[in-house]
């Protein structure tokens, strides 16, 4: 690869370089808006998740009068289509073409891997508002990589703990075959098997396939004590309906990380009633913070918020902590990062801090579907920190 140094650059090149540096460093002059690049799925099975994240983020910014650190926000958007193959190119568009100060993305763990790589290469601030891929706050952690959501390990671990406590012994898992499903199962297994349970079979199908029938039949034939699954978005709606239609709803207890029933209950209807899940958000937390968030969100978007909206809202809160510390001058990267690392996020889910690897340390709730709500049951695991294996920060 050719490397430029200032020595030997032709004058025309110098002029171009100077103008680019000015464009990229506009905020350093004290005049620029903060450029936020959303890289989210706006089509496909995760489209509603991407929209909720954007809604939550923008709502927080609106609550601050449209400014963070005293600067207005300019938004850029790319539909990542939950397609890992397009991820590096899409992330590069936001960073190189649009010159964003921060990338906010994404939902899908496979797509996230591409964004992390490009953000690290360019030293661009990245806030992950959903994707749980363990590597982002594990071996690929970095000073500029932050998460406002969870690691895949966390909700799985919480449910493994719950089922072991309930004395279950023999569980089958069923997920999409990509990092989110596989790492959820890993977390589940770690907690469940440490306390004497056994995962007797791990079943999967490619993302985003929804041909569940043969796998549902296979689960039934094994007759486990319970099944643990990871599905989300449109696929979760179909799975829950297929499970009930197969007549298994009252035969084999179905447990999951909370994505199975978050933002999906209207479409799942009766098929979802009674399903128990673990997640870092629940209906009925009833803190003043959560109540006002829900009220404002319903007013602004004519929708009930879900976990994705909360994560988007908190991504904006994280950015606000960084931008506030430098009065909006996002070129002061070290100061932005330090402030983000040290902040306590006053989230609707409950206040959380970040681990050394920049992942939320947070409570995981046990919830049960009742009507259109994932009603809070208990705290399944308090202040659960991802082990951040392989992170050297
Ligand atoms: C993921 O791919 O990491 C993911 C997608 C939807 C919900 C939760 C996790």
UniProtKB/TrEMBL annotation:
<keyword id="KW-0732">Signal</keyword>
<dbReference type="InterPro" id="IPR028081">
    <property type="entry name" value="Leu-bd"/>
</dbReference>
<dbReference type="InterPro" id="IPR051010">
    <property type="entry name" value="BCAA_transport"/>
</dbReference>
<protein>
    <submittedName>
        <fullName>Benzoate transport, extracellular ligand-binding receptor</fullName>
    </submittedName>
</protein>
<dbReference type="InterPro" id="IPR028082">
    <property type="entry name" value="Peripla_BP_I"/>
</dbReference>
<keyword id="KW-0675">Receptor</keyword>
<feature type="signal peptide">
    <location>
        <begin position="1"/>
        <end position="23"/>
    </location>
</feature>
<feature type="domain" description="Leucine-binding protein">
    <location>
        <begin position="33"/>
        <end position="370"/>
    </location>
</feature>
<comment type="similarity">
    <text>Belongs to the leucine-binding protein family.</text>
</comment>
<dbReference type="Pfam" id="PF13458">
    <property type="entry name" value="Peripla_BP_6"/>
</dbReference>
């Amino acid at each position: 690869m050719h490397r430029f140094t200032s020595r030997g650059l032709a004058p025309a090149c110098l002029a171009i370089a100077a103008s680019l540096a000015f464009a990229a460093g506009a905020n350093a002059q004290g005049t620029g808006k903060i450029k936020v690049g959303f890289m989210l799925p706006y089509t496909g099975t995760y489209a509603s998740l991407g929209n909720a994240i954007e809604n939550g983020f923008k709502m927080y910014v609106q609550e601050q009068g449209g400014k963070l650190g005293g600067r207005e926000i300019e938004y850029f958007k790319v539909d990542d289509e939950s397609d890992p193959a397009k991820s590096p190119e899409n992330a590069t568009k936001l960073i190189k073409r649009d010159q964003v100060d921060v990338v906010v993305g994404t939902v899908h763990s496979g797509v996230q891997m591409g964004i992390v790589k490009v953000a690290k290469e360019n030293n661009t601030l990245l806030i992950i508002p959903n994707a749980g891929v363990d590597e982002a706050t594990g071996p690929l952690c970095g000073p500029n990589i932050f998460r406002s959501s969870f690691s895949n390990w966390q909700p799985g671990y919480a449910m493994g703990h719950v089922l072991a406590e309930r004395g279950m012994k023999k569980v089958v898992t069923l997920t999409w075959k990509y990092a989110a499903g596989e790492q959820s199962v890993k977390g589940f297994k770690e907690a469940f098997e440490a306390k004497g349970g056994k995962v007797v079979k791990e079943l999967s199908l490619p993302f985003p396939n929804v041909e569940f029938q043969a796998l549902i039949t296979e689960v039934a034939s094994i007759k486990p004590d319970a099944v643990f699954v990871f599905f989300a978005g449109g696929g979760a709606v179909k799975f829950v309906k297929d499970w009930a239609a197969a007549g298994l709803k009252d035969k084999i207890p179905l447990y999951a990380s909370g994505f199975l029933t978050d933002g999906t209950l209207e479409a799942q209807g009766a098929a979802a009633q009674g399903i128990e899940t673990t997640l870092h958000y629940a209906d009925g937390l009833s803190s003043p913070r959560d109540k006002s968030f829900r009220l404002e969100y319903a007013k602004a978007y004519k929708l009930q918020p879900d976990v994705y909206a909360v994560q988007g809202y908190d991504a904006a809160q994280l950015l606000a902590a960084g931008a506030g510390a430098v009065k909006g001058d996002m070129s002061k990267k070290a100061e932005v990062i330090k402030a983000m690392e040290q902040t306590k996020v006053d989230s609707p889910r409950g206040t959380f801090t970040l681990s050394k690897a920049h992942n939320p340390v947070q409570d995981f709730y046990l919830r049960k579907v009742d009507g259109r709500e994932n009603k809070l049951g208990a705290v399944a695991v308090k202040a659960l920190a991802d082990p951040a294996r392989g992170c050297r920060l």
